[in-house]
Each structure stands twice: as C-alpha cells, then as structure tokens.
Amino acid sequence: MGTSTLVDTFRGHAQREPATVALVACADPFDPGSDTVYTYADLDVQARRVAARLGREVEPGARVLLQTTGAEFARAFLGCLYAGLTAVPVPPAGDNRRHRERLAAIVHDTEAQALVVPAAERDRAAEGLRACGVDGSLALVLDEAELPPAGDWTPARAEGPAFLQYTSGSTSRPKGVPVSHENILANAAHCLRMTGATPADRWGGWLPMHHDFGLVYQFLGPLVAGASTVLMEPGAFLRRPHAWLHLVHNRGITVSGGPNFAYDQCSRLVTDEQMAGVDLSGWRNAVNGSEPVSADVIERFTKRFAPFGLRPGTMTAGYGLAEGTVCVTLSPPGVPPAVTHVDAARLSRDEFVPTSPESSPRPRAVSACGPADNGGFDLRIVDPDTCDQLADGSIGEVWLRGPSVVAGYWRRPEETAAVFGAATADGETGFLRTGDLGVVHGGQIHITGRIKDVLVVNGRKVYPHDIEEAARGAHAALSTGVGAAFTAPALDGAEQVVLVHEYHAADRSEHALAAAVSRTRADLAAELAVSVPGIVLVRRGQVHRTSSGKIQRQSTRTAWLDADLRVLHAELSEPLQRMLTAHRSAAGSDGASAREAVQA
C-alpha cells in the first residue's frame, strides 16, 4: 500500500479518484432507489467534518464508542481516524440486561469519553448508561447540520490503535483487541490476495460493524483497496434472509460473506417465490467464515441456489479471528472448498484419519479453510501442552505470527503474556496462541474445534458442534434452530453432557416435546456414539449467540444453571437433576421448574 495510516490511504483515493463510488448505504435491499451513495470525495469531507467536531468534544487519543449503523457509522468511524482517536464499535442499544452490562463494562474498560448514537436513541442511550452507573452525558449525536466545515479539520497524529475490537465472548468474557493502522493495511492486502478481488469488485452485505468480519472484511478492506462496498442493516437479514440475496443481485455485488449459520438459514428458509427475479451468477466470492464451517452447509447452499445462477465454486471457506485482525486464510476462489471425510471416533481422540463415507460407520466431513502457507501468516500446528511443532496430519493448536497479528489485549498484561509472544519448544518466538484446534492436510488448514470447548466424556473427547449439528438433523422442530452443548458436573463429580436447543414448532404439547427429545437422544447415540443425559428444549432466541452467530456455550450453560432460560421441556438424568436443584437452592432460586423434573 505504501502508506503508514488509513487516513493517508483514504485521502489518497479521494484525491486521485474523487468521483469513484466508495460506499452505498442501503435503506431497502429490495429497492436500489432508496440507496444513499457516497464517493471517496464525499467520505473525505464527511470524515473531516466529524473529526473537527470530535476534536472539540474529546481529548486527543481518547476512545470513542460507536453505536450507529450504516452511513452514520461510516462517517463516525472515519471521523475518529481523521481525529487521531480510537474508535470502539459496539452493538446497537437494546433493553436486554446483558447488553447493557456489556456496554457499561466496555465504557469502564476503555475509559471512553463519548458514545456516538443516532439522534432518535440519545435519550434512551443516556438512560441505559445511567442505569449501569455510567455518566449519561457521554451519549453524543453527530447531527450533520451541526458539524463544522471540513476546512476546520486539523490533521492529527494517531495516538493509539485505530480501533478496539471487543471479542465476541463465545468462550470467555469479551476482551478488547487493539488493532493498529498497520494491522489493518496488512490484513486488507492479504485479504485481497486471498479473494483475488480488485478495485473493480463491489463488496457488500449485512454483517454488523461491531464485529471484525463486518468492520474489516466488509467495510475497511474495500475502502483500502479503492473499491466500493454496500452496507445493509443486519436486522434486514435476520428478519428476511432472502434480503441478502436480493442485495447481491440488485447492487451487483461480487464479494460478500457471512458466518456459517447465515448460509444455513438461507438454504432452509428462503423459498423459490422469494427468489423470483434474482440472478446470483455475478456473485464471485461468498466467504463462509467466523465459526466452524460445515461441509454440509456448503453443499446444501450451493445446490439450493444453483437454479438462480450460483456457481459451484462461489463459496469459499475461511478462517480468521479478531487477534489476527480478521482474515487468516481462505480456500481458493473458483473451486469448491476441499472436503475430507475422517473417522469421527478417532477424531474424538485427536486423530485425523481420512476415510471414505462408505467404509466408516461414523464419518465426519471436515472442510478445508484455505492454504496453511499463504504468504500472510506464519501458521504452525503445535502441541498445546509441550509446545512441540507437529507434523502435517496431526491435530494441535493453531499458532500464528505475522503483520496482521495485534500486539496483545487492551490493558490485560497477564492474558496478553499467556496468549501472545508464545515460543515453540525449539525456541521460535512471537506466536499468537489462537486456542483453535486444527490440522494441516493436503497443504490446507482444517479447523476441528476449540481447546476450551472440547467436551471430555468418560475419557473421550467430543466436539460440541458435532452434537449441535447432529441434533439439528434429528428432528424437524430442531432443524431451523440452534443448540449449545456443554458438560455439567453431577453431584458425584462425573461430567455429563447437556444439550440446550431451540424448539421451532407450533405443537408444544408434552407429547410432541417428549418425542423430540427421545428422537434427538436416539440419533445422537446412533450417529456419534455419545450419551446425552440432559436435553433442554427452549424457545426461539434463548441459546446465547454472538453478533456473528457463534454459539456462546458457557454463557448458555450459566443461564441454564441459573434458571435464566425460557424452558419448554427438559429431560435430565437423576444426578443432573439433583445437581441443578442444589445449585439453584444455593443461589436462592426457586429450583428447577416442573418440566425440568422429568427424568431421563
């Protein structure tokens, strides 16, 4: 890129190609006439005006939280960069207690001096801050009519990271990841190489800006490249998944991505009637990432939308994480991701043994997520206990180093020391320990799970996403929902598997609910050879997930233990039932509900 900051890059585009479309803010995915279009010159003017305003409100180098979306987010984020401030994207305001507490924790952790909100949300945001013991006056509206002229902007030197990305908390409490200008520029260049994209491509989608996949891949990366991107409200996709596919068609998007669950929802929920008039032949790269990639979902999505022009090699499988800015590797564009069938029983023992679907009683299809040696990262597979580097074909922890890897966690020296700057047994240093389990096979990385999520049952390792995926296929009422599998200690100390799963069916009679549990338990035993002593069926939306769709298993586990889920039906083994009753009694709860008293 040849520049040291994002501001240099964006200003360079504005000077060289001022009339090139940079950003399209989509108000209605079905109506291109509702779009607001910004050229690079427009964005530069907006960024300078916002920077001039922020310079009057906060101290140099301060952290500014952004709780806006679309064009409002874009100008606020760029304004922070132009003012030398650190942007902190956070989820939109919500009435959920967990959301408010998370926001308050981020305010305290960052010592933020402002929370940028839409005008219509200022009073609500201020009230929510005060409810959590935070100064409500932090809520700030960047009303365009009140912004200073662009000429009032004074170039500012970046005093800290470009932004703080708070991790999703799928396995632990969220941590701030400080991402530098250099990290973003390096990762944007790497992502362009991996996707094969050029400035002529148009990016876009619905991904939220408070997640690295949306912020870096969908927003910043295209702008660094001098391309254009289309931002659609995440809620539009969640309400109507086919809106994403109409957006790709109507706006001529060639590069768009999403987490595995988004492709799964489209495959299951979008009808032929909703796809009327949609042509997906121009969609060149559909990245599937941000959570374990399902080979089955890739196949189903590709087949489902082939009649609408989707080509077999459109979907690519990716692997990334916030600590690596976003993109680590992607499967090659233009060809379907490689899929390897392995023996599931031996995989539970951390043995990656390729097999044919016909020769193994329980084969598992594992998708490759891209080349391990890709020029952007030094990727190693390492024994997490001995730190010995492992040979190809062996499962271990994924370690990374390279210019996209951030320096550490925000103000957490102990956790930074434990995760960053790791050394292999033979003395190579400077590695990030990802906590992800993977294996290099055929030159490509295959992610098999996370160290913290692996369940150990009777001395055998079981991957929770295998249980969750099998459960979705076990019964129609579970097929469109999500589940969280985890272990809980019975009073005798033995760990027992519990599955909390959403139930989506009109028939909620005791007979129907019990039948769903019975069928699911039987299928899990037959397919995975695993006993699930606790199955809890809950209402839609009760399984905790991050903004990118990652299942928050430990958070869901805590909510179940604390009777904080809307349970429809539960069948628990007697040891689990006694443990649950004891836990809730100690916590002052009323104990298990009548429905949770059903014995497995």
TrEMBL record:
Class of this enzyme: ligase
GO cellular component terms given for this protein: plasma membrane
GO biological process, one term: Actinobacterium-type cell wall biogenesis
Listed GO MF terms: adenylyltransferase activity; ligase activity
Keyword presence, Lipid metabolism: yes
Domain AMP-dependent synthetase/ligase: 11-410
A Pfam entry, by short name: AMP-binding
Keywords: Fatty acid metabolism, Ligase, Lipid metabolism
E.C. no: 6.2.1.-
Keyword match Thylakoid: no
Membership in a protein family: Belongs to the ATP-dependent AMP-binding enzyme family.
Record-given protein name: Long-chain-fatty-acid--AMP ligase FadD26
Organism: Streptomonospora litoralis
